[in-house]
Amino acid sequence: MTYILLVLEFFKIGLLAIGGGLVTVPFLFDLADKYDWFSKQELADMIAISESTPGPIGVNMATFAGFNAGGIGGGILATLSLVLPSVIIMIIIAKVMGKYSCNVRVKDVLNGIRPAVLAMILFAGLELGKIVIVGNTEILFLAVIIAMMRIWKKSPIYYLCLSGVLGILLKTL
Q: In this model, does residue 26 exceed pLDDT 80?
């Protein structure tokens, strides 16, 4: 039964997560509420790890949740279930996009989807903020990093590494 739930839930996420890995986050929060496959704290930790390592958030989280729920088989099933809708959709789009790419209705649909994707990403950020920002230290840390990013236009990798080092130093003090 667990395997069936993994396939259904992650196939649904893969089908509806238009716009990339961060769009999967609201769906993953729902899973954290529905099942004991992972906690919201584990989700926040996994997002932090996924943002600083190769691979999409959704795939990493599907593998993690599937493994927690059903071992190696669960991890494989959840990951394949998340990716399969995208593969199917991309094959269909590749076949028909050349024919309909100039269609006004197709352009209107794509323009309508963009704000929804942005809203889902903002929602994910707010939900993560509730978990991660628990005190004044985190708020100050966030403000300093944002200010640094605005002043010094460096690679995001630089700020991820800097934040990781500062996080370690702050925990050891």
A: yes
Kindly list the distances between the CA atom of residue 49 and the CA atoms of 52, 55, 111, 121, 136, in Å, as whole numbers in the listed order.
5, 10, 31, 17, 23
With a CB cutoff of 8 Å and minimum separation 6, the contacts of 29 are 40, 43, 124, 127
Amino acid identity of 7? V
Q: What angle do CA 165, 169, 170 make, to 5 degrees?
A: 115
Q: Alpha-carbon distance 66 to 7, whole Å? A: 9
| 60-80: pLDDT as tens digits | 888 888 998 889 999 999 999
Find the Cα–Cα–Cα–Cα dihedral 95, 117, 22, 150, rounded to 10°: 120
pLDDT over 70 percentage in the chain: 94
The encoded tokens of residue 133 equal 């920002």
Local structure of 107: helix, strand or coil: helix
Burial of 83 (0-12, 13-18, 19+ CB in 10 A): middle
- For residues 37 and 31, the answer to whether their CB atoms sit within 8 Å is yes
Answer for the pair 57, 47: CB distance below 8 angstroms, yes or no: yes
